[in-house]
Amino acid sequence: MGKVFAVVNNKGGVGKTTITLNLAHALANKGVSVLVADLDNQCNATSNFFPTAPDATLYELLDGEGIDPSKCIYPTQYDRVHFLPNTEDSGSLEPELLAREDKGYQLLNQRLRQYATNRFDFTLLDCPPNLGLFSLQAMAAADFVICPVTGGSRYATSGLDKTIRTIKYVQEEINPNLRFLRLILNQVDRREGVDRAFVAGILEDYQGLVFETMVPRCTAVKQSEALKQTVLRSAPKSAAASKFRKLATELIDLLQE
Description:
This protein has helices spanning 16-28, 44-47, 58-62, 93-98, 107-119, 133-141, 160-173, 193-205, 219-226, 231-234, 239-255, and strands spanning 3-7, 34-38, 74-75, 81-84, 122-126, 144-150, 179-186. By secondary structure, the chain is an alpha/beta fold. Strands 3-4-2-5-1-6-7 form a 7-stranded mixed sheet, with helices on both faces. Helix 5 crosses helix 6.
């Protein structure tokens, strides 16, 4: 059975989509199969693969009686990586789902998890920059939570404690099998004093809950985003690409402990 990872943070701009897509590509390069699902109706991940949203998306999966997951999951330009796209219209589902008696928390779990875990080694759920319904759905369907945090800013950890409290709430009330795996430190420049202090503070405050591999601040990543490619494709020899390969190795090793 495959494993499902929700990539969550209550703050925008921390690199959830960048980390999700590059980690997926790095994992696939190690020979495993990966599904990426875009749960954010800003659709940043989707725009990397589709100029416009296809006919079958997350919206059709969650709306009404839903559709078979196979109809809204597509191959990508990266070997062993498949993708579940989103559309801006999915945001309109939230009031309707929250009006349900069960608030729709288990809908993604019921309609996607079994299909995904039977067919993919890793499923990465790219969540919105909030702790609303779609993030809760992701955590209800996930085995693990990965939380990206951006280095160098005094605002970087704002919302992090709330994110962790929400994970505990989901564990207690919705998904007792959920595990908070690790924080990923992103856009880190260890040459700068503020970043060194930030890293030291995170490592002290969250001992044992931080990936050893940190993603550096790197122009190659911004260039890859402009090209709508992963940095492993656009700049495979860059420092960031190297770190994503190491991050994939570290993640696989963690699961084998």
